[in-house]
Design a protein that fits this description.
ATP-binding; 217 residues; ABC transporter ATP-binding protein; Rossmann fold; alpha/beta; binds adenosine-5'-triphosphate; AAA+_ATPase; 10 strands; membrane
Amino acid sequence: MTVLSARGLAKGYGDTPVFSNIDLDLAPGEIVALLGESGSGKSTLLNCLAGLDEADAGSITLAGQDLRPLDDDARSALRRRELGFIFQAFHLLPHLSVADNVALPLRLLGLKDDGRVAQMLEAVNLGQLAARMPRQLSGGQLQRVAIARALVHRPRLVLADEPTGNLDARHAAEVLELLRRCTHEAGAACLLVTHSEVAAHAADRRLRLDADGLHDA
Ligand SMILES: Nc1ncnc2c1ncn2[C@@H]1O[C@H](COP(=O)(O)OP(=O)(O)OP(=O)(O)O)[C@@H](O)[C@H]1O
């Protein structure tokens, strides 16, 4: 079964089309790099898949559920359960500790599982820093917290928008390797927007976005 299927997705702003004819299938456990020129619509596509933005046309099936017949609440609930999102700028909550940031997706599902939070912090080599506040961490450490948070609730899909864009080459390689290992171990599919050739080659498959759709790269 595919984790995510999109068919015929199209999106524009006003009279300006961004993309159309997007067909995409992601299988469990695969990491797919999404490449494309600046302004080609990679972030917009990710946001449409995440439900942060709405496509103008097309269909999305997530974890076997067609999103179209669902009302807003049901879509949000499905996404809260099945989706993890990693942003370039980390988006951690500054007033929460590292452990509480990681626990957030579980809390939003009404769950509490300190053991799982500790396990994820160990998985990203941050077991010692659980009580720290985000301002006390380096960029690479913040991004590792964001990976732990994206996977803590065992989502089937992880969307990552340039997760290594803010990091130097060594930390970027470390973060990518962790993302790879964590998503493979979890059997989650991961769509990774990146400008980096190194990141793209760490992926199982590469796709390029242009105005008329997605192409193998
Ligand atoms: N809210 C908005 N209103 C109008 N136009 C927008 C909006 N958001 C994005 N755009 C436009 O849509 C196009 C795609 O933007 P998007 O950020 O998705 O591209 P991208 O491929 O992620 O770019 P980059 O690689 O530079 O991050 C751009 O031309 C951008 O100017």
